Amino acid sequence: MTKQSYQNVTEVLERKKILQQQFENTERETWDLSAKITSLKSKFLEAKQAVISWQDTHKRSKAQRDLTELKASIKSKDRIEAKYNQAMFEMNSIKESLDNIQTELLACQSHVSQSDILEHQQAIDEKEHQLEKFKQLIAEQQQIIIKASQPTDNTLSLLKQREELLVDKALGSDRKKELDQIDQDIEVQADQDQKTLITNEKLLAHAQQTVTGLERRAAVIQDELIRLKQLTSSLLDELAVGLAEEVAKRYKKAADVMAKELINLVVIDNFVADLGKRKDTGLLPKERWFMKIPKLNNMTAEDCLGDSENYFIDTNNNQLIINQELHQFKEDLQLKGIELI
Questions:
Q1: Which of 64, 236, 305, 310 has most Cβ atoms within 10 angstroms of its Cβ?
Q2: What count of other Cβ atoms lies within 10 Å of the Cβ of residue 59?
Q3: What angle do CA 26, 30, 33 make, to 5 degrees?
Q4: Residues 98 and 45 in one domain
Q5: Is the pTM of this model over 0.85?
Q6: What does the alpha-carbon distance between residue 7 and residue 111 come to, in Å, rounded to a whole number?
Q7: Domain end: 111, 146, 178, which one?
Q8: Domain contains 74
């Protein structure tokens, strides 16, 4: 099988997840429809029987009233039959959709390797790092917003000084020179405050727009991160299934060897028993049904050496094989020049 790239693997798994959800939703549609079909079928059979009954009644009576009832029963039967046929059409359409989804699901083959998992984890780490970077940038811009939103009126202290000078003037002191100077200072400060306000307004607008853009991009990264994390369990599941299949292959190979050797031991036990010196070699448990190797679900019936559907080999249920192997065992000894008694 051609090795799939990590990107292809994730695309297949995402498509598989969508198809599984579609299959569940579509299958759910059949529940109420199935009950509806069962009900309509029962009603149709009753309506059909009613037609037959009124036909017999009218045949005997020839009465107009019975003919009217017959016609009504036929119309009722036809209406129910039409509803039943429509429901069956809908059911067949749904089943066809389910078959199509199932076919596509079977085509969604993916082989997840350990390197795919590592690449997936790296992708998550990168997205988390990017998201953290965006959060830091947003925090920096928010600090700018806070600073730029602070009041910019720095004339308050100067105005208080002017108030004191005016009080002194009212009391008879000559404060003209000081008042002229403070008025000049207030004008300079007010002008400077106005410039600062304009600058801060620009900074504020710039920072707010920057935050909006950063949050928009961060949301995209967040969605991608969520998507990746949701894929993790599916990737691990596919990896585990793949590893299990590899183990199953090794199990089958080991079971082949073990089965052969178990048969050989049983054959030699039979050979020893036929000699009459002892009942067996003493190596195998006394109860033959102990000599069983569980059959995995992916092992076919042809693989089994016994008759049991649950075991790959069951020495209690394959006497025919044992007899064949015993005959071969004796022939092999004779071919080596050993004379049997």
A1: 305
A2: 10
A3: 135
A4: yes
A5: no
A6: 12
A7: 111
A8: yes
